[in-house]
């Protein structure tokens, strides 16, 4: 749980850092854009005065400075309208049209859009005659790029945060997998010696007391220990699934759980009459169903009923395990499969985590909480794709 808390803290810090970077970038860029927009407005006012001087010039006027100002604008799109709203000239404007009439119409539409955006300057030419011109301008390419830059930066930061979180989760998952695999294989190794010894002792007892009624039960328990050791040894390896009758696998689990639980717990199976042949690693899949049944027994405090249902659907085989226990709050349905999650005073919280690994990684299926109601019970569903 400490590792999980640390991961959450790191994710929270990464998100906060991303938000701070984005807020700072947006604020600073907004300031720069506003400053550059004011500067462009001032340049357009000077350019408009140059156009006024050019329009009012006579033969004696020196236009070298005026022309230098007019021709010096190579970045800001500008359109000049007369008092009748007709286009006189335009500059730094890309126009796509089929003929001259269409060009004038397109340019006029752009000018009206500039005026609507508040980017126009009115220059009076002759107050007596009421002549004037309007200089309409748009933002320069640099200003538009600068305005888009923070959103591009925001996207880059978000991608970085997502990649960083994914890397942290992958690292966490890899570390957990190493722990589970190492623990499982060490458990299988440690069980090997006492199981071999028990097998030898049961053989001695069988020869000494051939008619003892308890020896068959001891043999069953020893074989059970062998199967458990086999399961642990398969964790972390790549077990080869084989065609198995799903009905037989579930029946064995139900028989085993029924013999080792209280008489107050009723184990019921709903199995189809025809065999369900599924590609399974039987020892591991039995483990999954046993875990679900044992969790159900614990949730019922040793009194209630467990129903195991197997069915065939068009695209999958389905196993459902239903108990009449205390149920799981809906907000915790996905958390029950996380390592360390447990509601018992004694327990490591690994059962459902290993069950999820066995179903999803070894059998390429799904396991999830289908339904649960507090005080009523829970149904877990396993889905296995048809080959």
Describe this structure in words.
The structure is a single chain. The chain is α+β, with helices and mostly antiparallel strands and 387 residues long. Helix content is 55%, strand content 19%. The protein is built from 8 helices and 11 strands. The chain has helices at 2-56, 64-71, 100-116, 141-208, 215-234, 246-259, 282-299, 351-362; strands at 78-82, 87-91, 120-126, 131-137, 242-245, 265-270, 277-280, 304-312, 316-323, 366-373, 377-385. It has a 5-stranded mixed sheet with strand order 6-8-9-11-10. Strands 2-1-4-3 form a 4-stranded antiparallel sheet, with helices on both faces. Strand 3 (120-126) and strand 4 (131-137) form a beta hairpin. Helix 1 (2-56) packs antiparallel against helix 2, helix 1 packs antiparallel against helix 4 (141-208) and helix 7 (282-299) packs antiparallel against helix 8. The longest helix is centred in the middle third of the chain and has 68 residues, at 141-208. The radius of gyration is 39 Å and the shape is rod-shaped. The mean pLDDT is 81.
Largest sheet: 5 strands, mixed
How many strand units? 11
| Strand/helix succession | HHEEHEEHHEHEEHEEHEE
Helix content: 40-55%
Let me know the average pLDDT: 81
- The low-pLDDT segments are none
Distance between the termini: 38 Å
Radius of gyration (Å):
39 Å
- In terms of quaternary structure, what is this? single chain
Globular, elongated, flat, extended or rod-shaped: what is the shape? rod-shaped
Strand portion, in percent? 15-25%
């Amino acid at each position: 749980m400490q590792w999980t808390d640390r991961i959450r803290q790191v994710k929270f810090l990464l998100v906060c850092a991303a938000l701070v970077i984005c807020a700072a970038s947006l604020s600073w860029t907004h300031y720069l854009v506003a400053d550059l927009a004011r500067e462009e407005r001032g340049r357009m006012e000077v350019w408009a005065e140059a156009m006024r001087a050019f329009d009012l010039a006579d033969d004696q006027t020196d236009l070298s400075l005026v022309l230098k100002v007019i021709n010096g604008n190579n970045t800001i799109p500008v359109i000049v309208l007369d008092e009748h709203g007709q286009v006189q000239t335009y500059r730094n404007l890309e126009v796509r049209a089929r003929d001259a009439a269409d060009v004038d119409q397109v340019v006029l539409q752009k000018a009206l859009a500039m005026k609507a955006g508040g980017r126009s300057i009115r220059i009076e030419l002759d107050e007596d005659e009421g002549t004037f011109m309007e200089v309409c301008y748009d933002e320069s390419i640099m200003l538009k790029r600068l305005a888009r830059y923070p959103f591009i930066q925001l996207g880059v930061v978000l991608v970085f945060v997502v990649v960083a979180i994914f890397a942290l989760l992958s690292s966490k998952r890899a570390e957990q997998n190493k722990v589970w695999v190492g623990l499982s294989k060490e458990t299988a190794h440690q069980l090997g010696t006492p199981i071999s010894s028990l097998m030898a002792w049961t053989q001695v007892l069988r020869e000494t007391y051939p008619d003892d009624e308890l020896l068959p039960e001891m043999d069953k328990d020893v074989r059970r220990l062998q199967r458990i050791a086999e399961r642990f040894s398969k964790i972390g390896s790549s077990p080869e699934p084989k065609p198995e009758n799903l009905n037989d696998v579930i029946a064995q689990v139900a028989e085993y759980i029924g013999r080792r639980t209280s008489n107050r717990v009723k184990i019921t199976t709903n199995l189809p009459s025809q065999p369900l042949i599924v590609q399974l690693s039987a020892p591991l899949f039995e483990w999954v169903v046993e875990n679900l049944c044992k969790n159900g027994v614990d949730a019922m405090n040793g009194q209630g009923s467990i129903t195991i249902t197997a069915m065939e659907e068009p695209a999958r085989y389905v196993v459902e395990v239903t108990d009449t226990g205390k149920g799981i709050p809906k907000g915790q349905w996905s958390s029950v499969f996380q390592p360390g999650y447990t509601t018992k005073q004694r327990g490591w919280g690994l059962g459902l985590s290993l069950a999820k690994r066995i179903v999803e990684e070894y059998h390429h299926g799904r396991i999830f909480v289908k339904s649960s109601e507090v005080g009523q019970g829970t149904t877990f569903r396993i889905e296995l794709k048809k080959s």
